[in-house]
Write the structure tokens for this entry.
Amino acid sequence: MSLTNWAGNYTYRAPRVLAPTTVEGLQEVVAGEDRVRALGTRHCFNDLADGPAALVSLEGLEPEITLDEDARTVTVPGGTRYGTLARFLHDAGWAVHNLASLPHISVAGAVATATHGSGDRSRNLATAVAALDLVRPDGSLRHVARGDDDFAGSVVALGALGVAARVTLDVEPTFLVAQEVHVDLPWEAVLSDLDAITSSADSVSLFTDWTGDAVQQVWRKTRVGADGFERRTELFGATPADGPRHPLPGIDPVNCTQQLGVPGPWHERLPHFRLEFTPSNGDELQSEYLVPRAHAVDALQAVRGLADVVSPLLQVSEVRTIAADDLWLSTAYGDDRVGLHFTWKPLQPQVEAVLPTLEAALKPFDARPHWGKLFADPGRDLARLYPRWDDFAALVAQTDPDGKFRNDFVARHVLR
Ligand SMILES: Cc1cc2nc3c(=O)[nH]c(=O)nc-3n(C[C@H](O)[C@H](O)[C@H](O)COP(=O)(O)OP(=O)(O)OC[C@H]3O[C@@H](n4cnc5c(N)ncnc54)[C@H](O)[C@@H]3O)c2cc1C
């Protein structure tokens, strides 16, 4: 088998991918294998989803989506892509609270890694999880629901506690969003008015290459209420884009979601890229570090100080905000965070050579690396960043004492 991740920078070492077509079949697979890992849509940039023996994909499971309007929840097989779920929900008059930049990722894979969108008041996607049906090492199915003792440790779980056969998510009535892009936001304004800028819409993303005096683009997504929507003419010195934009300068925005303030359904505005545009692989690598909101300006300054080192390897960086949550391994556990994201050119050795420098610059700010993207963690000291780390390690040891779901990533970073 020669299977790679979406970016093509990682070839899975597991010799087999099993694809059961029923939950019972999934339970049999898990019970029967000595070592097994869940595989989602392969959008991680590292070896997190890999395993020494079998991988199990949920892509063959019946795509059954169950909406419970009274409970305001929807239940999906873990392998369901957000884009598929979003269309279903919108057609039924419902929505999830936020989406990532790309709708093609699986719900269980996104949740397992604390995937997030942007928004001062918007928590990461995993916080919408109301319950999980987890296949345990012996193949039994355990329903873990909000309020259970180990729930907060079981949602962002890196695939280490079992395979999420089904995920139940909170939903809310569908809503409209308008998306605007402003260009050339002076860095001076970013540093002096960051809070006002990021709170100026429901979701705000700053796109920069860290050089020059201005952030190149600001993408702002605003929920449209009964009063309609008015485009903002001026934004702290930035001006409205005169046409649709791609986050990368000079690239045709045809695959980007609608801009210019035209209201549309949430799932056609919250991601940056359209669902119909399905890239099977990407010529890019990604890293991201989540710093406490209180350190955001200092962290931005620290990365600007490395612009000479970072920007030659960069396609673009994106700065987003994420509200605090209580999920033990969430990158926003305990406090509001700002995400400093790097979309790199596909130059892995050079990128890996720069990551320790970047991480050293961000270390004073307790930057948590995104679980699914490239990071170095040279001192193997992630534990100090997560107050509930030991509890998570204990939960893994208790749930999976024989290490059925363990892999190199988990051994290297979590159970050292
Ligand atoms: C183009 C692109 C855009 C992205 N945009 C964003 C973004 O906007 N915000 C953000 O935060 N991240 C973003 N990411 C990162 C991405 O969301 C994460 O890597 C996410 O984990 C991908 O989900 P997946 O289904 O591809 O997971 P995979 O890479 O397949 O697996 C990831 C982890 O999830 C586990 N897993 C998968 N399925 C299950 C299951 N059923 N049960 C238990 N565990 C499971 C795996 O074992 C593994 O540990 C982006 C990535 C790409 C390539």
Remarks:
- The radius of gyration is 21 Å.
